[in-house]
Design the sequence.
DNA sequence: GTTAGCACTCGACAGTTTTGAGTGCTAAAA
DNA sequence: TTTTAGCACTCAAAACTGTCGAGTGCTAAC
């Protein structure tokens, strides 16, 4: 990719920024007044014409102004955009919004997502801390009536899940004891990902008393471990998408796409960089072709642990959104680290 | 309200049903072929004209057919609609959809809402079992690390909630013991609604050791009791609203209205009858003026316990939706009753 | 009370014109 | 070689026009 002349850069940046601001195609005269360049509109037109030929700009139709192409956004994001600090206002909003959930990592991430979505008017996808390295720290069995109990599971990243479990037979003290034996020997300290139905069945079979009493409990443990993974992904502020006229009725389709969680998981896990920006058709899913995705990872105790992503129209305000995302992942990572290292 | 002639009833019913089916205004000729009446279209026009004058029908514009007015729908629902049994297919769908969540009342209601929404293509609001009569059955304190613990709360209607709680000081055995003392004497058996911040503070103050150690725990209990109430209301299938062309872009506003839960709570709690149908502007909220709400209560152990409501366009298929709602509340009530009486 | 007939209304649709913003090109100026 | 002014051209959006047809309301006759 050949380097652009300074004047072309100036024009491209102005087109992108103005288009982001107004949503209207930008014409040559408007551009003159925006940049304050001391040349005529004809000169600008020539430059724009070349930028179009090079693929950075495009025209909705012959007699309209120019609009950034996907390539144009990409160049802008990679080379032209200023690397700002987060706005004071945004910073305050974020801090105020998440402080109330400081103690509970899962709630914290959920809340962080809501705040960020509200701030940016985008949809926010976030994943609770987790990943392969999550180990099970503690399991507790709380009896509830004669034939059922609640299982409580705590992991190394501070996530807490509970689930009701019904037994076929009475929940005796002996069963409880044996359950805790199995838990201590086969589950505590193991990665959540390793808890499989088979390993649990084997464990249940090794028990002194009736193994069938133990099965529902073991099954519940499995399901709980599984749900750790499944419920990691969270979606917030998806109705913000309706406020962007860029999408038009397409907002509905996008909304429904986001509410099917599976593809979201794929999108989030496809990200490798600490901060990744995926523009328009660079997305793997057709449903996102008019959207940009900004994903940043956060780390807990120095390890990548989850990420927070924003989904909005390609015409989003990258320059102000990116610092917010960076700041949020940073602070969230620190807060969770602190919460679990007590 | 004067009684309508048989022929007027026939015509009104036909207009309502046809309009529900097609969404198009119904004209005089069309009505003839629908009802099979042996009079001319002019006669039908005269009748329709009178029905319009009486307020049961209205015209979108001079040269269009007639559409039921709100009063027309009301008359139809109260007097003309047949009281059908639930469709075999719907019954099966409901049973299949909710069977997997039989053990956990809260999940069951959530799932029931999803199924009903899917079946009817409406949004479904439901409230988990609860109300004034809910008493706290059990509280468990599960230590998690040195300075925090998870509180688990179980109520008489089978709802289970947990919450992480951080302490300022170390969680000693003594604190645990004292906590359980307070719980046993002041909390268990009490209605959840009675748990107030003040009563908890008093309880914390009565303790032997440092009352400040107990405060966060008591605060968490309060919050948990409060959240029992707050989290009762659930919304499912709200994106179905987008599929109704009746709403047009208004669907977005309605969607956003529903996602603010507060007004929903008001709508649901305003209902007194076992089965209530609120049509169009009868709703208290402007945002629902083009919608109808059908709410049915379910009862657990013979007591009213919660309700399930549907929200859809005024032009909804009352005749098939109502039996589904009735059936669902009935079966859900029985399932929960069975689950908690074990 | 019912019917046939007819004038009338009005939205939907399709085609036409007008408007104005914005471009591309060319020839002259710098 | 770069820049500029001027002008013809393009095209979407908006305003306007005329036609069509479904459906009504009214009247006079049955």
Sequence:
């Amino acid at each position: 990719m050949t380097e652009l002349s300074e004047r072309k850069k100036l024009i491209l940046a102005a087109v992108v920024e103005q288009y982001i601001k107004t949503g209207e195609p930008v014409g040559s005269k408007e551009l003159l007044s925006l940049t304050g360049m001391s040349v005529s509109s004809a000169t600008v037109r020539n430059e724009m014409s070349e930028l179009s030929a090079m693929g950075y700009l495009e025209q909705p139709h012959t007699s309209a102004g120019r609009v950034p192409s996907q390539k144009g956004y990409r160049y802008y994001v990679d080379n032209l955009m200023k690397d700002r600090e987060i706005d004071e206002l945004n910073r305050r909003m974020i801090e105020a919004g998440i402080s109330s959930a400081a103690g509970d990592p899962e709630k914290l991430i959920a809340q962080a997502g809501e705040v960020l979505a509200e701030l940016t008017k985008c949809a926010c996808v976030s994943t609770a801390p987790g990943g392969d390295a999550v180990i099970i720290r503690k399991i507790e069995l709380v009896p509830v009536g004669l034939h059922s109990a609640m299982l409580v599971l705590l992991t190394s990243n501070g996530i807490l899940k509970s689930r009701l479990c019904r037994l076929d037979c009475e929940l005796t003290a002996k069963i409880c004891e044996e359950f805790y034996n199995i838990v201590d020997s086969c589950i505590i300290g193991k990665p959540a990902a390793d808890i499989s139905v088979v390993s649990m069945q084997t464990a249940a079979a090794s028990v002194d008393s009736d193994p069938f009493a133990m099965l529902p409990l073991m099954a519940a443990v499995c399901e709980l471990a599984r749900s750790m993974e499944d419920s990691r992904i969270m979606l917030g502020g998806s109705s913000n998408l309706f406020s962007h006229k860029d999408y038009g009725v397409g907002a509905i389709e996008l909304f429904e796409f986001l509410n099917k969680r599976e593809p979201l998981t794929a999108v989030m896990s496809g990200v490798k960089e600490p901060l990744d920006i995926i523009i328009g058709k660079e997305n793997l899913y057709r449903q996102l072709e008019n959207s940009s995705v900004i994903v940043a990872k956060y780390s807990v105790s120095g390890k990548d642990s989850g990420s927070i992503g924003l989904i909005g129209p390609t015409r989003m305000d990258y320059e102000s959104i990116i610092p917010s995302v960076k700041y949020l992942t940073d602070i969230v990572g620190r807060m969770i680290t602190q919460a679990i290292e007590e």
Chain A is about 50% helix and 20% strand. Residues 39-43, 46, 60-64 of chain A lie near DNA strand D (CB under 10 Å from a C1'). Chain A has a mean pLDDT of 91. The beta strands of chain A are 57-58, 67-68, 123-127, 136-144, 148-155, 160-166, 233-236, 275-279, 291-300, 303-313.
